[in-house]
Write a structure and sequence with these properties.
The complex is a heterodimer. Chain A has helices spanning 2-14, 20-50, 59-67, 115-129, 136-148; strands at 92-93, 99-100. Chain A is mainly alpha-helical. In chain A, α2 (20-50) runs antiparallel to α5 (136-148) and α3 packs across α5 (136-148). The longest helix of chain B is centred in the middle third of the chain and has 31 residues, at 149-179. Chain B starts with 10 loop residues before the first strand and ends in a 32-residue tail after the last helix. In chain B, α8 crosses α10. Chains A and B meet through α4 of A and loops of B.
């Protein structure tokens, strides 16, 4: 329901008549983005509750988190970019040789549509790369960066 | 000398070897030489060619056996000279430099033919049983175990060596006949014609429609043998139909190729599942529900449930790292491959079995399904 109303709102705002294919593309894009945004909204609220000085997530901080060589986690995975491509619109490769779909939502709308999956991978990969769980701000920055591209 | 036979030619030209026999003979030379070459020298990823040539040999042999009943006079089995008496008299004539005029196969040649037939049939049978035992292809899958492949491969190899010796003997004798006895065997092998005594009665012609019978039998046997696949047996089943397989695929295939359960013992799988927070250098923790599903999956599907090359050679062996690529069978079978192959696209990693083994996810890893990528 939320999806449909947001779509109608978009149509009213832009006032354009889009062909069906355009509508479908938008639907796919928005369903992905609305989920990613929902997740981001939750992160935002949780962060605000725990951190009074919080002024919002930053794509720039997200980018530096993505490319920094931490080396505090497991030896083979010092950075996110050990497996993901430095350019999140390009596919990466796992250490076992499997391709990883791009991380940027603009080229891969299926990303961040499944909350359980987001949690699973934040859990695994933060521990692999950083050697600890990620903070709410780190997660928010990361997602903001991936949505911004 | 010509006086008493003045009105009758001493010799006449007769077609002894009919066209099907000559085509069979030349095809057999090509197929057997190609089989021996691929068998002795070709790497595993050429095996599909050896297999196809094997089916061609089945076709040729079944054609020739039928043709030995329905073909022209000297293509028939009953014209072979197989008695010990004829063999003895042939050799004594030879030693006394008397003329030996055999229109078809002479006695030692007849024995050579029988030897070839027996050897080639042993080659076909052992080859077909190896297919069942080692690759789980064909009807012999259900009556063999993987453990039989050791003796079968040994038999196949020994017979191949005997065959090589027989071929050498055969070629040597033919050259001897041609050069010393001036029998022009090689020419008759190609044209079919031989000089025979003028008083030789006309030769029996092939039976009507004999060629259709021979071709029909050869084609049916070959297609039957080449197309019989019995995959589901007590030795192998399709794991993708097992319970909890979806969990395995969903949880594990994001990072790596789906290793077949037969690659590890139950103990090895459960050790792996209890240390997922450090899974070959990465954290691969799972939700408690998923972990429970996977424990069930590998309890019900593991090395002990399969009798394949992989389940025996890899699944039953161990390596200190736990890695499949560190086990003896893996390193031995991949030692002739360049290291760079595993590091460059599209393989990227030796952990990526299905980059070359097209049937890796089924756990069968048949030689005929190896395709080296173009790099």
């Amino acid at each position: 329901m939320k999806l449909i109303t947001s779509k109608i709102a978009t149509r009213k705002k832009t006032g354009r008549r889009l062909p069906y294919t355009g509508l479908l593309t938008l639907l796919v894009l928005f369903s992905g983005m609305s989920n990613a945004n929902e997740y981001l909204d939750q992160l935002h609220q949780q962060t605000k509750q725990s951190d009074i000085g919080f002024s919002g997530f930053s794509a720039t901080r997200g980018e530096s988190l993505f490319v920094t060589q931490f080396g505090t986690g497991k030896p083979n995975t010092p950075a996110c970019t050990s497996c993901h491509d430095k350019n999140p619109t390009l596919p990466g490769k796992t250490r076992a040789g499997k391709p990883i779909e791009p991380m940027a939502i603009s080229v891969n709308p299926q990303r961040y549509t499944d909350t359980a999956k987001i949690n699973k991978w934040f859990g695994r990969n933060c521990r692999s790369v950083l050697g600890r769980e990620c903070t709410l701000i780190e997660k928010g920055d990361f997602l903001t960066y991936m949505i911004s591209l | 000398m010509t006086d008493q036979n003045a009105d009758q030619p001493l010799k006449k030209q007769v077609s002894v070897w009919d066209l099907p026999v000559r085509i069979f003979h030349i095809s057999l030379i090509i197929v057997v030489l190609a089989l021996l070459t691929t068998g002795f020298f070709a790497p595993a990823w050429w095996f599909s060619i050896h297999e196809l040539l094997g089916y061609a040999l089945v076709g040729l042999m079944s054609f020739r056996i039928v043709w030995a009943w329905v073909g022209s006079e000297y293509s028939r089995f009953n014209r072979l000279k197989l008695s010990i008496k004829s063999l003895r008299s042939w050799f004594s004539k030879m030693l006394n430099s008397e003329s030996v005029d055999d229109i078809g196969h002479n006695p030692p040649g007849s024995w050579m033919i029988i030897t070839f037939f027996i050897l080639l049939i042993i080659m076909i049978l052992t080859g077909y049983f190896i297919q069942g035992s080692e690759n789980l292809t064909g009807l012999t899958t259900v009556i063999t175990r993987y453990s039989h492949s050791v003796i079968l491969v040994w038999l196949h190899k020994v017979t191949a060596w005997i065959l090589l010796i027989a071929i050498a003997l055969h070629v040597f004798s033919v050259i001897l006949h041609d050069v010393i006895l001036k029998h022009a065997l090689i020419k008759s092998m190609i044209t079919g014609y031989k000089q025979v005594p003028g008083n030789t009665p006309p030769l029996t012609r092939p039976k009507p429609f004999g060629i259709f019978w021979a071709l029909a039998v050869a084609l049916s046997i070959t297609l039957f043998i080449a197309n019989t696949h019995t995959e589901n047996s007590d030795r192998w089943y399709d794991i993708s139909l097992s319970k909890q397989y979806d969990t395995y695929a969903n949880e594990c295939s994001d990072c790596h190729f789906l290793y077949h359960p037969s690659l590890n013992t139950k103990r090895q799988w459960s050790a792996m599942l209890s240390s997922l927070e450090n899974h070959y250098g990465e954290d691969a923790s799972l939700s408690p529900e998923s972990l429970e599903h996977l424990i069930k999956f590998f309890n019900d599907n593991n090395q002990s449930h399969f009798d394949t090359r992989i389940s025996v050679e890899i699944g039953q062996s161990e390596s200190s790292s736990g890695r499949i690529t560190d086990r003896k069978f893996w390193t031995e079978t991949h030692s002739n491959l360049d290291d760079s192959l595993f590091k460059t696209p599209p393989v990227y990693s030796p952990a990526n079995c299905d980059a070359c083994h097209l049937d890796a996810e089924s756990g069968l890893f048949r030689d005929q399904n190896i395709v080296l990528p173009n790099t």
